[in-house]
Amino acid sequence: xxxxxxxxxxxxxxLEEIEKASMRLVTQxxxxxxxxxxxxxEKEKDKVADIGEDITREALDRIGVSRIDERxxxxxxxxxxxYVFHPDYALKQALFVDSKAEKISDRATATIQTAQTSLxxxxxxxxxxxxxxxxLPSIIESHHTSYLxxxxxxxxxxxxxxxxxxxxxxxxxxxLPNGMLQNIYNPSEMDTIWRTGRNAPTxxxxxxxxxxxxxxxxKMNWRVQxxxxxxxxxxxxxxxx
Length: 241
Known about the structure:
Layout: H1 12-32, H2 34-43, H3 48-63, E1 78-86, E2 89-103, E3 109-113, E4 121-125, E5 128-132, E6 139-142, E7 145-161, E8 165-176, H4 182-185, E9 194-196, E10 208-212, H5 213-219, E11 224-227
Parallel strand pairs: 2-7
Antiparallel strand pairs: 1-2, 3-10, 4-5, 6-7, 7-8, 8-11, 9-10
Helix pairs in contact: 1-3
């Protein structure tokens, strides 16, 4: 009844289909929750990163997903072992959704740790080729079963208001490709979706990289969706670029 995620290595179109369906799920959840999210940003006095994490969890818990009794580990805010059902197949998925929150001036990128992607990170860093291994497996093996890893980034763009308050200006959602799609999305340091991250190796800081939304969108338009605030309407963007 369930397909083995490893079969997707020879069926990348199906893999893209699964990630697109997962992207639609997360996008719908965040869209439905956007007015509440704006109120939370306005009223909450916590750190903006913590506010973003809480909003993502609440939004996904409200829309609901299938659940498998399996604990997932990793440096990602929302982790869920679940089933993906399609008319022609079903499989087990490890859905990871990570939240970011930055000022609206930084809306073009999201900072990623190696533990948050199964892709190899290939780009130019200070003019030199960089090839860093993503630490998240493409497929997670656990208790004699396999889970397809799917990673989605939710980035909240905010502006600061007087009195240590914030206003939510919009949200960008990006579906990071599974590592099996490496040759399509990041085959080399010159053909990349990354930019040098905010870390200083000279100070011993862990490797980070910035996912460039525009570069990913050029590769596959639906992988980046931008949700505006009311009264502006959101339309799923799947047009050819």
